[in-house]
Write a structure and sequence with these properties.
Number of helices: 12
Number of strands: 6
Largest sheet: 6 strands, mixed
CATH class of the largest domain: Alpha Beta
Strand order of the largest sheet: 1-2-3-4-5-6
Bound molecules: acetyl coenzyme *A
Distance between the termini: 50 Å
Strand content: 5-15%
CATH superfamily of the largest domain: Gcn5-related N-acetyltransferase (GNAT)
Length: about 375
């Protein structure tokens, strides 16, 4: 049960914060009391029980007073009393049925001038911790029509999971009231829960801020496109990983640096396959100015297989991406300068398709 009492009351903190603070200061006390026929209860216990009876009688006017008195003073019933400056201001009267695995909440009330201060929440949290210590993990209660909202916020539900055989005949059916159940989680320290959640919230906020700071950082702009590179692997864009980007299987081809074991052997092999391809003839050497006088006016970053070959020999390709970028630029230059109907244009398409397929094979085999 980690539900409703987790509700934090906006900026002012948790609903039970004031109650927790007052308990730390000794203003509030939570005590479990019960009458006994075996030994005479202390005067203090009896005063607390009478105080509880008075609060219940006042706050539950539809309940006969004699009935309240009988149950509060019944030795089989216990009550968790909320005492403020030595006066009982609230409490919960309950009866435990450990063998049936549940406890019945019989009366629950806080004095009208002390309501909506979080005392009811803290009271219920104390009752939960108390039951976990005693090995009982289910509450049942017949909630008044007007108290259903409060019980819901304490984790009670109208759906009862406990087997009927466990509680039928053991608890009294109240007319006009709704049977509600709350299941406890023994791992939760209920009276500390709001503090735990606040700490978790603070940690989460810090983590989110850290991530946001790294996302908001202004990265230096990419300069490679000015140098004629047409395409770069997404993962090399500064800041993209920090922003949470993850490569898809399609991106894998472009993220291969670390997986290609012998880069120079691979680029040499790919270059050799390119030069011997039947569609590579327009790209074997730099474009001859005599054949295409305006070529270098249009194409600012020329590249060809011979130049690429020299770069391979001089081990200038420090990553497969750079090699891929040069081949793609070569094909792009060709398509930019030539008409789509030309053979040159078709060669660029065929050669690039062949090349990218080979790259995928090479990367896939590493
Ligand atoms: N209906 C709907 N919501 C309520 C009610 C209610 N009657 N009473 C309190 N709440 C809400 C509060 O607004 C608060 O919500 P939030 O955290 O979102 O702000 C939350 O429940 C807890 O409030 P607390 O301040 O912790 O509870 P409070 O100290 O006021 O005690 C109680 C609640 C015990 C129900 C009190 O209002 C009371 O004594 N009411 C009269 C008696 C009563 O009806 N008792 C229950 C009868 S059923 C039975 O006894 C089995």
């Amino acid at each position: 049960m980690v539900g409703p009492q987790m509700t934090l009351s906006g900026a002012s903190g948790a609903r039970d914060e004031q109650a927790r603070h007052e308990q730390r200061q000794g203003i509030l006390q939570f005590v479990v009391v019960s009458n006994s026929i075996v030994e005479r209860p202390s005067e203090e216990t009896l005063i607390t029980l009478i105080g509880l009876k008075n609060v219940f009688a006042h706050q539950l006017p539809r309940m006969p007073r004699e009935y309240i008195t009988r149950l509060v003073l019944c030795p089989k019933h216990r009550s968790l009393a909320l005492v403020k400056n030595k006066t009982v201001i609230g409490g919960i009267c309950f009866r435990m049925f450990p063998r049936q695995g549940f406890s019945e909440i019989v009366f629950c009330a806080v004095s009208s001038n002390e309501q909506v201060k979080g005392y009811g929440t803290h009271l219920m949290n104390h009752l939960k911790d108390y039951h976990i210590r005693h090995g009982v993990h289910t509450f049942l209660t017949y909630a008044d029509e007007f108290a259903i909202g409060y019980f819901k916020k304490q984790g009670f539900r109208k759906e009862v999971h406990l087997a009927k055989t466990n509680y039928l005949g053991f608890i009294k059916d109240y007319e006009g009231a709704t049977l509600m159940e709350c299941q406890l989680n023994s791992k939760i320290p209920y009276t500390e829960l709001s503090v735990v959640i606040r700490h978790q919230k603070e940690v989460l906020k810090k983590l989110i801020k850290q991530q946001q700071d790294s996302i908001r950082r202004v990265q230096p702009g990419l300069t490679c496109f000015k140098q004629g590179v047409r395409q770069i692997p997404i993962g090399t864009i500064p800041g993209i990983w920090e922003a949470g980007w993850k490569p898809s299987s399609n991106d894998r081809v472009m993220e291969v640096d670390s997986s290609v074991s012998d880069l120079n052997t691979v680029v040499k092999q790919l270059h050799s396959e390119l030069t011997s391809h039947s569609s590579a003839w327009p790209f074997q050497t730099p474009v001859d100015k005599a054949v295409a006088p305006d070529y270098y006016t249009f194409i600012k970053y020329p590249i060809d297989l011979q130049t690429i070959g020299s770069k391979v020999s001089m081990r200038q390709y420090t990553s497969l991406q750079l090699f891929i970028a040069d081949v793609q630029r070569m094909c792009f230059n060709c398509r930019s300068y030539n008409d789509p109907a030309t053979e040159y244009y078709q060669c660029a398409n065929v050669l690039e398709a062949f090349f990218m397929a080979r790259v995928r094979e090479v990367v896939g085999s590493t």
